């Protein structure tokens, strides 16, 4: 099974592996969400949606539907 | 008359771009709208030297030149259109030292447009605390630009920045990253087809779906000299562009920046742990909303009362000071109260925007969006709709203005359309008097029935707003990006200057925007109420006096009776009696009809109008209440205000769109009469139907 950002638990760290080109908004890439970068889950709202991430020093929140599109490797 | 150059301030959101703008221009700025759209256009003047002024435009914040909103389109349209009168001679890209990597992405894009570009690194005062060291010389050399280290907060570096702007001609226009490395073959063909254009500009024209003045997208894409790519190929190339740019930036920052994490102290994690907590986050948010609500509802009542009495005594004074005549009447009864009706909203607007600016500036607003997004999304609203909806409970006008923070147009429009359903403070006097009349003052199980009714009315307003949002979300077909990416900026102490300028701007935009319409409508309503056709109106005095020739009544009572008679035969009275057949099924008579018609000026007018019609001298609540209780239903007999007609009236006021000030501000915020007119017709129509059903079922 593939692991995605949505599988991260609070405080857990992962490395972005890849994502589906058409489903992830370009804006997320521009904010630093690129393959090879670290991603840390800082906080989740109730129902785990949206989630609050630290991607390579950039703090941002995305919805679960987007998080499911970003494959990671947990470290 | 000195020379003037155009300067465009560009930058990511939350970089302190507006603080830099405020430092450069001070109060020497103005806010308008870009023609045809509701994006704010901020511009100001800054004196550079004796002979040279800079005309500075604060462009909307954007993360890149790949636009995803109207705000961002504005940036690209300006930068690509050399014929625009605002086309910048020099671009100033504002970045934040803590997010330099991300900020440089936009910088390299602007640089590639071959416009002289200065890099401002803002919040330089934080460098030490964050353990950041920068080699400015390397940055300047590799980026082919000039760098200004600025702290808008500590007011350092601004003079140096002005100096750089002054000498903009010395800045190289050489791009950082040649667009052709993305796909040499494709860009080679592009170069051949359009040898005179900048390649990166062409690339933007192809990928961005925005309006361009001089370069037409269609002529470009329909040109057969090279075949265009499919959308998904283009998107892939855009991703490649982003990755290439980041590679360049990473390489650069490896040389030019060192971060010593051991000296960095980070408060944000601890604050975030509390403010975005699943339980405490909501508790704190509720407390903050309560304070805001308290401020708009309660604290602003003092300045509002003061404004009210000031305008009333000013009116009295003018009546005595001016020669009697219709012009004086127009001034005293039409214009002065009309102006008062505008000024009275200023305290509420100022208070709300004081809080909103502080919440925005401090970085807390992003946390609110994070907390509320999931709940509000279900109804087609945004996490940011919460503040307008709650402040709508005080007054819909500042609430509609507060929706400007919502970037997604569909979510913003829905919020604007449903806000007037929430129970605003102007409904309160109407509710109180009707509840006192028709709901028994009794207590069951420790609950006072009157209080319970009032609470139900508040819940009804909020519930209707949410329900309407849900329906609008289903039926409105507006193309808008559905994805959601929000930056969670670091916490900052709000800058007084930024907050103050924002409050002043918002208040000004209400007074001069919606104010004009409010004044016009109040004058029209005054004319309708003060003039009437035929003898019944013009000879009202004679008619009433003659009817009392046999009996002696006190002069004051006589005057009141004349006023009531006049109102009955004025144009508005004729309208009121004209709509009587329409309001009878709701359980009302023509007098309530008039009160409803004049309530379209503002709901709270209801009580005052009834006071005039019933010729009660003072608008003391108790007196009017007794007078209302004695009214007889002309059709059914029995008291006019029964449980059935009372509930019907309450429901009518709960749903009807009866506030021209709100309509005016909706017109201003949506830039068209379409939406306020739809609100007026649909909300009032719905109110009519519900009130009709309520009366017919309950009577």
Question: How would you explain this protein's 3D organization?
Answer:
- The complex is a heterodimer of chains A (75) and B (699).
- Chain A has 75 residues and is mostly beta strands.
- Chain A has helices at residues 26-30, 64-67; strands at 13-19, 38-44, 51-55, 58-62, 70-74.
- Chain A has a five-stranded antiparallel beta sheet.
- With 699 residues, chain B is an alpha/beta fold.
- Among the domains of chain B are: 1-263, P-loop containing nucleotide triphosphate hydrolases (Rossmann fold), CATH 3.40.50.300; 280-299 and 345-494, no CATH class.
- In chain B, the strands form three sheets. Chain B has a seven-stranded mixed beta sheet with strand order 2-3-4-1-5-6-8, sandwiched between helices. In chain B, strands 7-9 form a two-stranded antiparallel ribbon.
- The mean pLDDT of chain B is 84.
- The interface between A and B is medium-sized, with 28 and 38 residues.
Overall spatial form of chain B: elongated
Helix fraction of chain B, binned, reads: 55-70%
Radius of gyration of chain A: 11 Å
Fraction in beta strands of chain B: 5-15%
- Architecture of chain A, CATH level 2? Roll
Strand order of the largest sheet of chain B: 2-3-4-1-5-6-8
List keywords for this structure.
heterodimer; A: 75 residues; mainly beta; SH3 type barrels; five-stranded antiparallel beta sheet; 5 strands; globular; B: 699 residues; alpha/beta; Rossmann fold; seven-stranded mixed beta sheet; two-stranded antiparallel sheet; 33 helices; 60% helix; 8% strand; elongated
Give a summary of the structure in a few sentences.
Chain A has 75 residues and is mainly beta.
Give the topology, please.
The complex is a heterodimer of chains A (75) and B (699).
Chain A: E1 13-19, H1 26-30, E2 38-44, E3 51-55, E4 58-62, H2 64-67, E5 70-74
Chain B: E1 3-11, H1 17-25, E2 29-33, E3 40-47, E4 52-58, H2 70-80, E5 90-96, H3 100-111, E6 117-122, H4 127-130, E7 132-134, H5 136-143, E8 146-149, H6 158-166, H7 184-193, H8 199-207, H9 217-222, H10 231-256, E9 257-259, H11 268-275, H12 280-299, H13 301-321, H14 326-343, H15 346-362, H16 364-377, H17 386-391, H18 396-402, H19 409-418, H20 427-438, E10 443-444, E11 447-448, H21 449-475, E12 485-487, H22 496-530, H23 534-538, H24 540-547, H25 555-569, H26 571-578, H27 580-583, H28 590-599, H29 605-613, H30 621-629, H31 643-655, H32 660-670, H33 674-698
């Amino acid at each position: 099974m593939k692991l995605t950002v949505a599988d991260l638990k609070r405080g857990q760290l992962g490395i972005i592996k890849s994502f589906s080109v058409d489903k992830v908004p370009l804006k997320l890439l521009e904010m630093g969400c690129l393959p090879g970068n670290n991603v840390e889950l800082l906080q989740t709202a109730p129902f785990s949606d949206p989630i609050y991430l630290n991607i390579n020093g950039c703090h941002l929140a995305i919805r679960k539907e987007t998080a499911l599109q970003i494959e990671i490797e947990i470290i | 008359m000195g020379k003037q150059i155009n300067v465009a301030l560009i930058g990511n959101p939350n970089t302190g771009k507006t603080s830099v703008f405020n430092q450069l221009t001070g109060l020497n700025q103005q806010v308008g709208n870009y023609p045809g759209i509701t994006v704010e256009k901020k511009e100001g003047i800054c004196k550079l030297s004796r002979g040279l002024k800079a005309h500075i435009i604060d462009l909307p914040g954007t993360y890149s030149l790949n636009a995803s909103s109207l705000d961002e389109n504005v940036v690209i349209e300006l930068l690509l259109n050399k014929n625009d009168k605002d086309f910048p001679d020099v671009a100033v890209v504002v970045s934040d030292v803590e997010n330099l990597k991300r900020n440089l992405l936009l910088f390299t894009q602007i640089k590639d447009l071959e416009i002289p570009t200065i890099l401002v690194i803002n919040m330089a005062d934080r460098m030490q605390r964050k353990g950041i060291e920068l080699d400015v010389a390397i940055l300047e050399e590799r980026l082919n630009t000039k760098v200004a280290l600025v702290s808008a907060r500590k007011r350092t570096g601004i003079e140096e920045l002005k100096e750089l702007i002054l000498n903009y001609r010395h800045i190289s226009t050489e791009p950082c990253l040649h667009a052709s490395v993305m796909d040499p073959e494709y860009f080679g063909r592009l170069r051949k087809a359009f040898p005179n254009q900048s390649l990166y500009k062409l690339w933007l024209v192809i990928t961005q779906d925005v309006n361009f003045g001089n370069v037409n997208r269609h002529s470009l894409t329909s040109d057969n000299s090279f075949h265009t790519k499919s959308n998904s190929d283009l998107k892939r190339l855009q991703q490649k562009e982003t990755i290439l740019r980041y590679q360049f930036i990473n390489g650069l920052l490896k040389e030019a920046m060192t971060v010593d994490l051991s000296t960095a102290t980070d408060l944000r994690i601890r604050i975030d742990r509390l403010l975005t907590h699943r339980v405490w986050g909501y508790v704190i948010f509720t407390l903050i909303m309560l304070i805001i609500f308290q401020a708009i509802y309660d604290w602003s009542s003092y300045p509002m009362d003061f404004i009210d009495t000031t305008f009333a005594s000013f009116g009295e004074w003018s009546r005595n000071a001016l020669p009697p005549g219709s012009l004086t009447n127009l001034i005293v009864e039409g214009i002065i109260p009309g102006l008062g009706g505008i000024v009275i909203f200023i305290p509420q607007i100022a208070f709300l925007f004081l809080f909103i600016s502080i919440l925005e500036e401090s970085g807390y607003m992003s946390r609110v969006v994070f907390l509320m997004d999931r709940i509000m999304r279900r109804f087609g609203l945004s996490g940011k709709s919460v503040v307008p909806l709650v402040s709508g409970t005080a007054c819909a006008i500042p609430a509609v203005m507060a929706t400007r923070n919502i970037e997604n147009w569909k979510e913003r429009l829905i919020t604007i359309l449903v806000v007037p359903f929430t129970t605003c403070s102007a409904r309160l006097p109407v509710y109180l008097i009707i509840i006192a009349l028709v709901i028994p003052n009794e207590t069951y199980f420790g609950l006072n029935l009157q209080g319970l009714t009032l609470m139900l009315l508040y819940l009804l307003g909020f519930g209707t707003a949410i329900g309407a949002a849900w329906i609008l979300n289903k039926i409105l077909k507006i193309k808008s990006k559905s994805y959601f990416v929000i930056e969670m900026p670091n916490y900052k102490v709000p800058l007084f200057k930024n907050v103050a300028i924002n409050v002043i701007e918002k208040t000004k935009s209400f007074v001069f925007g919606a104010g004009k319409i409010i004044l016009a409508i109040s004058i029209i309503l005054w004319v309708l109420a003060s003039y009437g056709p035929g003898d019944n109106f013009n000879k009202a005095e004679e008619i009433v006096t003659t009817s009392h020739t046999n009996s002696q009544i006190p002069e004051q009572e006589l005057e009141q009776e004349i006023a009531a008679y006049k109102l009955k035969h004025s144009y508005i009275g004729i309208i009121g009696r004209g709509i009587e057949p329409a309001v009878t099924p709701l359980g009302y008579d023509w007098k309530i009809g008039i009160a409803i018609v004049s309530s379209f000026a503002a709901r709270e007018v209801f009580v005052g109008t009834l006071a005039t019609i019933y010729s009660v001298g003072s608008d003391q609540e108790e007196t009017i209440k007794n007078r209302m209780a004695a009214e007889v239903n002309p059709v059914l007999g029995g008291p006019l205000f029964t449980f059935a007609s009372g509930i019907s009236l309450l429901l009518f006021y709960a749903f009807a769109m009866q506030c021209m000030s709100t309509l005016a501000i909706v017109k201003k915020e949506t830039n068209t009469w379409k939406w306020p007119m739809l609100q007026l017709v649909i909300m009032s129509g719905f109110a009519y139907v519900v009130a009709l059903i309520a009366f017919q079922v309950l009577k």
